[in-house]
Amino acid sequence: MSLRVRVETSVAPAAESVLDEADFVIGRADNAGLVIAESSVSRKHARVVAREGGWWIEALSPTNRTFVNQHAIDEPQQLQTGDVVSLGQATVTILGTDVSATETVAEPAAPSPEEVRQAARLRTLNEIHRALATPISLAELLDLILQRCFDVLRPEEGIILLRNAAGELTPAATHRSDPGDGDVVVSRRIIEEVAGKGQSALVLDAPMDERFLGSESIIVSGVKSVLAAPLTDAEGTIGMIALSSRIAVRQFSQQDLEMLESLASAAALRVRNVALAEEAAARKVLERELALAHDMQMSMLPRHMPDRPEIDVAASLTSARSVGGDLYDFVLVGDHLWFIVADVSGKGVAASLYMAVAKTLFRATVQIDGITLSDALGRMNRELCRDNDQMIFVTALVGHMALSTGELSLADAGHNPAMVISPDGLVEQPAIQKSIAFGVIDNAVFAESPLVLARSATLLLYTDGATDARNPAGDIFGEVAFERAVAAGGKDTVDALVAGIVNTVDQFSADAPPEDDLTLLAIRWKGPVESEI
Amino acid sequence: MQINEMRQQGAVVVSPVGRIDSTTSPALDAHLQGLAKAGDHVIVMDLSGVDYISSAGLRVMLTLAKRTKESRGRLALAGLGDSVRQVFELAGFLPLFAVEATNEAAVAKVVAA
User: Fold this and answer.
1) Closest approach of chain A CAs to the CA of B63, in angstroms?
2) String of DSSP letters for A23-85
3) Per-domain residue ranges of chain B
4) How far is B64 from chain A (nearest CA, A)?
5) What is the pLDDT of residue A169?
6) Which among A27, A90, A455, B54 has the fewest CB atoms less than 10 Å away?
7) Which residues make Cβ contacts (< 8 Å) with residue A521, sequence separation at least 6?
8) Is A312 within 8 Å of A524 (Cβ atoms)?
């Protein structure tokens, strides 16, 4: 089947053409099926499509109109032999609507456009089935599926939606015939119809179809015809594919829908497999990263407790798999023991690097001659605020103790309260003025609070991994239980105290994986060194 | 975690429901970034449905506060339960936020400016 026309323009002699494409554009564009090189003609002026055994013409340009026999057309119109189509200064006269290319020999009839499309559908299915059997990334697979749909079904827009981890359908691939025309939008109603009910849909006249009444995204974007199929495997609907056309004459058929359905069901299984494989690979990368972060964290802890006769010190850090980022450290500067217990928000290598910076800053800052606790923390904070786009913050309890007197200076940068255990095992929370965590406000001021430890009293610092531990039922260990665990070991050595608390929290959590690092630091002041006689 | 959202007098009221921890905070962060991309910078965070917020959740709130400030928007928190309030308090973050008891008060606060 073909269309024979005579084209007359103001710039070239009249010419006759035989057009045998089933769907082509008339216009000034180089890639138009019938090119008219005349400035008064739009690049894509009109479209001609073979349908229902005839040829139909549709205007593409709303401003530069198309006329058939002097009448401007608003609707697709069937062309008859003898019709004169006017586009700008050019005219196209229809000489014949069904002419064999060679009239002399009675060859078998050329396949109809519908037969041609049917063959193309089968070819496409075959190609995609073959592609599905080869190693291919999810993105490549989705692109291939859309690309092939465009080759055969010729929509204006296509989209594949896949369910994300939260179960929401999100765009995984989009394609459009005319690039740079905004996002591809699918009506919520179509998503409900197709992905929600697992049914495919063929909508021929979207603005009129009662299923889509009030469905603004279709009408506003001028979509006339929609073809959509669910991606379904044994476990249910994992997504959907939708193709849409804005042009009335290029409507999808039931055969198109069948092709899309069979494509979608073949693709669904493969999409699931590829997605699972990619997820597993991503998980492996994350696991490696977390292992690296864990090693970094452990390598940063002090290897020895400070060795001074005035104090006993014990510490423990149990790192959780997912959150991470605790730190403790101490530095002896003259008669003073500086110490820190900190919790970096965030996880993985980024948090570990931040922790390394915090530790280095702590060690460097406290050794500045005569620096006060407030000034030291102000400096640390300013450095930690620098380039902190990720808003990683560090909560910390920092202080120093005069070993000869047991006098303490403590500062709370957004951290859990400290505890003091008296020699007879009573537990209390000393009043420490609250300041903001490190890394949030670069000119933050850090208040320091004084405290004197009695002889044989113990200062205990901890992170929220102690109080926020959960058991398999999801209950939180809590501050009350934590305080009881502290009191239970109050008269033990600091090593036994720390080990006892860790043990109690462990028993509570049972098999529940720890959500956060658990860090404890206990410093007991034994009194000044007796001067020898 | 579920995230509900409604519009009141030109403010967007975002109501996460459930735990905001390292598992759920990326979804909340993505949701809030989506609002910013759409040009919504007048925001009320209704935390009345939140029973737990971890440091990862605090980071999402800090990031939101920073972004809102940079785009000259307004942000207020509402409906903080005791345990959620305590987490903000412990980290020293309460002074960083406008905190109101109810959504109505928080909406009035961000819209009035």
Assistant:
1) 6
2) EEEEESSTT-SEE---TTS-TT-EEEEEETTEEEEEE--SSS-EEETTEEPSS-EE--TT-EE
3) 2-112
4) 10
5) 83
6) A455
7) A313, A314, A315, A328, A339, A341, A460, A461, A462
8) yes
Please name the residue of chain A whose CA is at the shortest distance from the CA of residue B63: A391
Asked if A517 has any chain B CB less than 8 Å from its own CB, the reply is: no
Whether A323 and B63 lie within 8 Å, measured CB to CB: no
Whole-model pTM: value is 0.59
Of B54, B59, B92, the CB nearest to A436: B92
Side-chain-side CA neighbours of residue A140 (13 Å): 8
Place of tokens 């690049």: A43
User: How far is the C-alpha of A302 from the C-alpha of A297, rounded, in Å?
Assistant: 11
Q: For residues B102 and B45, give the distance between their C-alpha atoms in angstroms, rounded to a whole number.
A: 10
Are the C-beta atoms of residues A245 and A224 closer than 8 Å to each other? Answer: yes
Contact across the interface for A516 and B54, Cβ inside 8 Å: yes
Most confident of A36-45, A133-142, A187-196, A482-491: A482-491
The set of residues, in sequence order, having a beta carbon less than 8 Å from that of A414 and lying 6+ positions away, is A393, A395, A396, A434, A435, A436, A437, A438, B90, B91, B92, B93
Q: Who's near A281: CB < 8 A, 6+ residues apart?
A: none
* Dihedral pair phi/psi, residue A434, rounded to 5°: -85, 130
The C-alpha of A161 sits at a distance from chain B's nearest C-alpha, in angstroms, of 18
Residue A151 and residue A155: Cα distance in Å, rounded?
Answer: 9
Task: Say how many CB pairs under 8 Å bridge A and B.
Answer: 58
DSSP for A86-148, please give it.
EETTEEEEEEESS--S--SS-PPPPPPHHHHHHHHHHHHHHHHHHHHTS---HHHHHHHHHHH
Nearest to B21 by CA among B1, B49, B46: B1
A469 interfacial to chain B (CB closer than 8 Å): no
**Which residue in A434, A438, A446, A477 has the most chain B C-beta atoms within 10 A of its own C-beta, making it the best mutation to test that interface?**
A434
The CATH number of B2-112, from 3.50.50.60, 3.30.750.24, 3.90.79.10, 1.20.1250.20, is 3.30.750.24
Residue in A436, A443, A477, A517 to test binding to B, most B beta-carbons within 10 Å: A436
- pLDDT higher than threshold 90 for residue A495: yes
Three state DSSP letters for A409-458: EEEEECCCCCEEECCCCCEECCCCCEECCECCCCCCCCCCEEEECCCCCE
The per-residue pLDDT for range A223-243, each reduced to its tens digit, is 667 888 888 877 778 888 888
ipTM entry = 0.90
The answer to whether the CB of A145 falls within 8 A of the CB of A160 is yes
- Contact call for B55 and A347, based on CB within 8 A: no
CB atoms within 10 A of CB A179: 6
Query: What does the pLDDT look like over A140-183, one tens digit per residue?
Result: 888 888 887 887 777 888 888 888 777 788 888 888 777 655 66
Nearest to B59 among A345, A441, A515 (CB): A345
Q: Nearest C-alpha of chain B: how many angstroms from A265?
A: 30
Check if the beta carbon of residue A301 is closer than 8 Å to that of residue A319: no
The mean pLDDT of A433-458, rounded to a whole number, is: 95
